Amino acid sequence: MASIAASSSTSLLARPRQLVIAANQVKCFSYGRRSHLSFNLRQLPTRLSVSCAAKPETVEKVCAVVRKQLSLKEEDEVTAATKFLALGADSLDTVEIVMGLEEEFGIEMAEEKAQSIATVEQAAELIEELLLEKAK
Amino acid sequence: MRIRVMSQLQRSLSIELPSLVPLQLPSRMETHLWFIRPDEVKSTSLLKHYSQLLSPTEKEKVLQMRGDELKKNALLARTLVRATIARYQTNNAVDPKALMFKKNMYGKPEVDWQNYTNCNNPPLHFNISHTDSLIACGVTVHVPVGIDVEDKERKIKHDILAFAERFYSADEVKFLSTLPDPEVQRKEFIKLWTLKEAYVKALGKGFSAAPFNTFTIQSKVGTKGEYNLCKMTEMTASSLEETNKCDGEWKFSLLELDDSHYAAICIEDDEASGGAPMRVIVRKTIPFVEDELISESKLL
Questions:
Q1: Residue B202 domain-assigned?
Q2: What domain count does chain B have?
Q3: What is the 8-class DSSP label of residue A34?
Q4: In this predicted model, what pLDDT tens digit does every residue of B18-72 receive, in sequence order?
Q5: CA–CA separation, B113 and B162 (whole Å)
Q6: Which of A6, A35, B14, B103 has its CA 20 to 30 A from that of B190?
Q7: Angle between the B56-64 and B68-87 helix axes, to the nearest 10 degrees?
Q8: Cα–Cα dist B293/B1, whole Å
Q9: Phi then psi for A62, rounded to 5 degrees?
Q10: Given its phi and psi angles, is residue B295 left (phi above 0), alpha (psi -120 to 50 degrees) or beta?
């Protein structure tokens, strides 16, 4: 399969999971644009950026950190849309999750931003934002 | 002292819930701390009655929780808040189902008294905290309150000092690093966590108003269960000298609850108190069923 890059002209067929994640979003938290996706598997127009939805690998890594921190069982479902609170995470768990994510990705999250993360997707997006900043 | 309200409730739970036993308001500088043990509430009938007290939004939030245990705990938390607050309306009976809640501009939940034309409603403040095995609700009059409870045995998955260095103040890191025993260190870390959380929740302005590393909480020398809050003032550009401003604006209490949890309470100081420490009345409860006054609250 084609390598997955954070570019805006990726075919949906190559990244079926990405479609699911984008379809769950009404708004892009980082960029505030509405997603105008329809639900067929047409090639996306190149002007429509999918970079408002985080990469699947980032989401997966976040899920792994969350699972570990909350000691979830195999069968407990964690997806991009999952809210930490719904999994029973309290404030101490959230902070430990943030620490775990900082370690996993080699970044540092400002406390206010870290506190505003409520879902896996939001965490993944913030992480990618920070990684981009770091790469500059 | 255990007050059993309605034992026939246990036998026949198809009847309506009994009316709530009214309560005396907390006095100034007094916090009422109520807690419930989810594993002591087993009756599905009782839980069904509880769920009928919740607003549609609350019910939706309960349903969003993953798994039966989390759903039950979320239900019990809302029931505890509604049933407890409704009991303080000593003049007029308040239906716990009719209570309305709103959030302040930072997201802290408060009672919305707009429904009640009786202007004598006491200015009740409340705050809740939950863990897997215990849910607590603190109630005060006139002053904002924040509470936090944690399981004493809670394991921290990261290195304690690394965690403290990342999030706590320099003085707190110093204090924790002087403790040689890792188990003692872990316990003190958790106690500090509950105190700091309680403060931020009492403040009610969200985390960005009081990042954990900008204030220190330490026990007051020569007292038991009393703590001081010291805030770091801004460092001047010319020198690296930090000054700590310790004020008595906030009062803290830390206690051991039911032998299993640490509970921290923070309230805004009422100048009328004359510097007296906070009084805490602890009661274990199963809403509509029974209350138990815990006569000794172990101060830490």
A1: yes
A2: 1
A3: B
A4: 888 888 889 887 899 999 999 999 999 999 999 999 999 999 999 999 999 999 9
A5: 45
A6: B103
A7: 150
A8: 6
A9: -65, -45
A10: alpha
Say if residues B280 and B255 touch (Cβ distance below 8 Å).
yes
Task: Please give the pLDDT value at position A2.
Answer: 40
CA distance A114 to chain B (A): 10
Question: Using CA atoms, how far apart are residues B262 and B297, in angstroms rounded to an integer?
Answer: 11
- The answer to whether residue B22 neighbours chain A at the CB level (below 8 Å) is no
Is residue B184 domain-resident? yes
In-domain check, residue B24: no
CATH number for B116:
3.90.470.20
CB contact at 8 A, B57 and B81: no
User: With an 8 Å Cβ cutoff, are A95 and B157 in contact?
Assistant: no
Identify the DSSP state of B159.
-
Query: Least CB-CB distance to B157: which of A69, A85, A88?
Result: A69
Query: Considering CB atoms only, which of B65, B148, B166 is closest to A99?
Result: B166
Burial B182-196 (b: 16+ CB within 10 A, else e): eeebbbbbbbbbbbb
Integer-rounded Cα radius of gyration of chain A: 15
Q: Per-residue pLDDT tens for B161-211? A: 999 999 999 999 999 999 999 999 999 999 999 999 999 999 998 877 888
B154 at interface of A, judged by CB pairs closer than 8 A: yes
pTM: 0.81
Adjacent-strand bridge partners of B54: none
Any domain includes B239: no
Question: Is A13 near chain B, with CB under 8 Å?
Answer: no
- Name the residue range of residue B208's domain: 30-234+246-298
Q: Residue written as tokens 């407890």?
A: B84
Would you state the pLDDT for residue A44? 46
Of A88, A91, A112, the CB nearest to B197: A91
| Chain A contact for B130 (CB, 8 A cutoff) | yes
